[in-house]
Amino acid sequence: MDTLTEQQVKQYNKEGYVAPIDALTKEQALSARKEIEIIEKKMPNEINKSGRYNVHLISPKLDEIVHNSKILDAVEKIIGKDILVCSTTLFIKDSNQKGFVSYHQDAKYIGLEPHNWVSAWVAITDSNEENGCMKMWPGSHLEVKDHVQNFDEGNLLTRGQTVKGVPENEIKPVELKAGQVSLHHPRIVHGSGINKSSDRRIGFVIQSYIGTNVKQTLGKNRVQIARGVDNYNHHEIISRPNSLMSEENLALRAKENKVLQEIFYSGSKKRSEY
Fold this sequence. Notes:
By secondary structure, the chain is of the alpha+beta class. It has six helices and 16 strands.
């Protein structure tokens, strides 16, 4: 059975996102949370703020999610059968933390062209309006919109990049149970509020599942092959981790994160702690 129905593919094309998609069991999501918290305990601040990127390169549990067949089946329906993994991000909002994500479009600053790519937002914990779930502006993916850079306090984005004039009456919350996934288009306007609950909210975002025809125009990411073959050879291929936090994989991740920071801040005279 296909992970996405024909109707869901039509919804994605029309509205710019689709959710929920059942992908992980609750036990798999809990196991991933435990591994994230092991990393936090062993290496405080290693995956905090600007360290939140590419944790799948040091975590076998998150690597398993990246290569999960149910997620890839859904992604294949959107971008085709040849799929590369180009970076991941952890969005952790602790209880009563003031962190939020302003309304923005991923395509504005990531540098991946053409836009034959999709982001998969994986709920490691339940994600709802109380704890700051994602919110989408349906149909806003038809064009790249102007952004301002606010660098505002509490904003979990690199530049505080913000689309102004978002119509709140058109915004739709994307509530997910632990283990469920949403897919969103690189140009859809989305954001999220603060966590007002008594538990942390953890989202693991495969920031970019990209088609093999996609190039990085602002730098040189290295990628993993998730499915199919790469006949374009635009990117260097890297291997998957075989153990938790090995020295080799920690070094690889540090190198990839440095490149990613240069891409995210390309053209900016200022940087935030993210």
